[in-house]
Specification:
By secondary structure, this protein is mostly helical. The chain has helices at 3-6, 11-28, 48-57, 59-76, 83-100, 118-145, 151-183, 188-191, 202-227, 235-242, 249-268, 274-278, and strands spanning 35-37, 41-42. It is 69% helix and 2% strand.
């Protein structure tokens, strides 16, 4: 996680944050009218960006999509208390993506994300699932705590919306952009100084990456279960009772524990882009 702080010392990384933020907001805003959940989410083809740009730009991609989402909320008419959770959710959407690529052996392709093989696409889909889940869990958790929407409604909707965009549009986006970004020397390992990158061992990094993916998906699944009373009542009845009341104590505790786990596992996980790192 330290690279998410130390990257602010590098002018090029700051410029990448600005570019990613502007692009993400520019793609988000035109689709704000295509609402799925009023005031919360809409059809978002821009959700391919956190995965693709997170993998390429690392922490700059994470900060960029977080800031871009905030700009989209402000200029798209959806800015409010929940925007803070949108910021955090999209930050981790991209952060998880760059932490997982190359670290999910045997699920990883062991190759750069040029998207010219079925194994690379399959790896991207696994990463997109984890990233979509953690983003959805953070936003749904936050809005239930605020008493605006129940987790059981928002969690699955946001996760599916995120995953479909990333899974369908992510591969062609990386196929078109990754080789060019690599040629320009703008991949995050090429931009950042070596000491800013994690020095974690491969085995520890792989274990941490699996933990990161597991926490992301488990938070979504358990959060939905808590929101509907773990089967203790009809879905519609639990949803109606939850709406406007705020999150329960177990739901709040789950989010607090998951946040701590995400930070810890992110710190232990080392990101790897094979060719770029070996060329250093």
């Amino acid at each position: 996680m330290r690279e998410t702080i130390t990257m602010w010392r590098d002018t090029r990384m700051i410029m990448l944050v600005a570019v990613v933020a502007a692009l993400f907001a520019a793609v988000l805003i035109p689709f704000k009218a295509l609402t799925i959940v009023p005031g919360v989410t809409e059809i978002r083809p821009a959700n391919a960006i956190p995965v693709a740009f997170g993998i390429m730009f690392g922490p700059a991609g994470a900060w960029g999509v977080a800031i871009g989402n905030l700009i989209g909320d402000i200029f798209g008419g959806t800015f409010g208390p929940g925007s803070a959770f949108g910021f955090a959710g999209n930050f981790f959407f991209a952060l998880v993506s760059y932490k997982l690529w190359g670290n999910l052996a045997p699920l990883s392709s062991g190759e750069e994300p040029t998207m010219d093989s079925a194994r690379q696409v399959a790896e991207l889909w696994v990463i997109a699932l984890a990233g979509a889940a953690v983003c959805a869990a953070i936003i749904a958790w936050g809005l239930e705590v605020l008493g605006q929407f129940p987790f059981s409604v928002l969690g699955p909707v946001i996760a599916l919306n995120n995953f479909l965009a990333a899974a369908v549009l992510g591969p062609p986006l990386l196929y078109l952009t990754y080789p060019r970004v690599r040629e320009m020397g703008l991949l995050y390992p090429d931009v950042m100084d070596a000491p800013a990158l994690s020095d974690a061992s491969s085995s520890r990094s792989t274990l941490a990456a699996f933990g990161l993916a597991a926490v992301s998906i488990a938070w979504l699944v358990i959060g939905v279960g808590l929101s509907v009373g773990l089967g203790g009542g009809a879905f519609i009845g639990n949803t109606a009772e939850t709406f406007g009341q705020g999150g329960s104590t177990p739901q709040i505790a789950l989010g607090a524990v998951a946040f701590v786990a995400l930070f810890g596992l992110s710190a232990l996980s080392k990101s790897r882009l094979p060719a770029a790192l070996s060329a250093r």
